[in-house]
From TrEMBL, chain A:
Gene3D superfamilies: Fumarate reductase/succinate dehydrogenase, transmembrane subunit
Cofactors required: heme
Protein name: Succinate dehydrogenase
Species this chain originates from: Limnochorda pilosa
Taxonomic path: Bacteria, Bacillati, Bacillota, Limnochordia, Limnochordales
GO cellular component, one term: membrane
Keywords attached to this entry: Heme, Iron, Membrane, Metal-binding, Transmembrane, Transmembrane helix
Gene Ontology BP annotations: tricarboxylic acid cycle
Keyword Transmembrane: yes
Transmembrane segments: 12-30, 59-81, 93-113
GO molecular function: electron transfer activity; metal ion binding
Record-linked CDD domains: SQR_TypeA_SdhC_like (cd03501)
Annotated compartments: Membrane
Signal peptide residues on this chain, from the entry's feature table: none
UniProtKB/TrEMBL annotation, chain B:
Protein name: Succinate dehydrogenase
Any GO CC annotation of this UniProt entry: membrane
InterPro entries: SQR/QFR_C/D, SuccDH_FuR_B_TM-su
Gene3D superfamilies per the UniProt record, alphabetical: Fumarate reductase/succinate dehydrogenase, transmembrane subunit
Species annotation: Limnochorda pilosa
Subcellular location: Membrane
Keyword Transferase: no
Lineage: superkingdom: Bacteria
Keywords: Heme, Iron, Membrane, Metal-binding, Transmembrane, Transmembrane helix
Entry-linked SUPFAM superfamilies: Fumarate reductase respiratory complex transmembrane subunits (SSF81343)
Residue stretches spanning the membrane: 21-44, 64-87, 99-122
UniProt GO MF annotations: metal ion binding
Coiled coil region boundaries: none
Length: 118, 126
């Protein structure tokens, strides 16, 4: 196993974000299923997502999905492009993932939080 | 370094190799489909405006039902295979592995059935 370092962090974050997204997905499929039972029930359930706690959860969900996707591309690159699997390259690729994540997520989270507060 | 990546390509082929490829192919498709879904539903639109009427107008176009069904199937199977990997890694007692794996398969089946049912049969009341 890993003893610290970028490899361990990307591996842990990939698992945690994956489980988090899957956890939400279960509830999201069930809430969408309720649309088949008519407008009253569905609209009541969707109103729960408007609660500020759920809106913050939504910001976290977007971050988890974005990180999982970007890091997933890194994993595919390492798996299919032998050059990228060199230790030094893997480390650089992880920094690229973190950099892209920050550049994409900070404005997105900013926008989403501003929407909650408005 | 025990592992060069999340999970090394399984030797010997068969189901495990197919699952390994599926994770990578579905993952790349999901980057576009799941992030696209998030941008459309959470950024361009908002959970504040998504209600019954919104779903009814969106699903009036068969293309969105197809998109949502493909997203449902890929996301559930990709997520389920990920959980299967976690069970493999963390649950060592044979009895508990059977319990967790069975629960996972029941959950996957239930999610695919309920999701497919609502996408296929939804018919808005006016």
């Amino acid at each position: 196993m890993y003893r610290g370092g970028q490899g361990m962090w990307s591996w842990i974050l990939h698992r945690v974000t994956g489980v988090g997204v899957m956890f939400f997905l279960v509830f999201h499929i069930l809430d969408t299923w309720l649309v088949g039972f008519g407008p009253e029930l569905y609209n009541d359930v969707m109103a729960i997502y408007n609660h500020p706690v759920f809106r913050l959860g939504e910001v976290g969900l977007v971050g988890a999905l974005l990180f999982h996707g970007l890091n997933g591309v890194r994993i595919v690159l390492v798996d299919f492009w032998p050059q990228a699997s060199l230790f030094q390259k893997q480390r650089q690729l992880f920094y690229v993932v973190v950099g892209l994540f920050v550049v994409l997520y900070v404005p997105t989270a900013w926008y989403m939080i501003a929407e909650i507060l408005h | 370094m025990a592992r060069a990546s999340v999970h090394q390509r399984p030797a010997g082929g068969g189901f495990e190799l197919m699952a390994w490829y599926f994770m990578r192919v579905s993952g790349l498709v999901l980057i576009f489909m799941a992030l696209g879904h998030v941008v459309i539903m959470h950024l361009i639109n908002s959970v504040e405006t998504i209600n019954y009427a919104f779903v009814a107008s969106r699903w009036a176009l068969p293309g969105w039902r197809v998109y949502d069904w493909v997203l449902l199937a890929l996301a559930v199977l990709h997520g389920a295979n990920g959980i299967r990997t976690l069970i493999d890694d963390y649950v060592h007692r044979r009895g508990w592995r059977v319990v967790w794996t069975s629960a996972l398969y029941v959950l996957v089946f239930g999610l695919l059935v309920t999701g497919t049912e609502v996408i296929l049969t939804f018919n808005p009341v006016s």
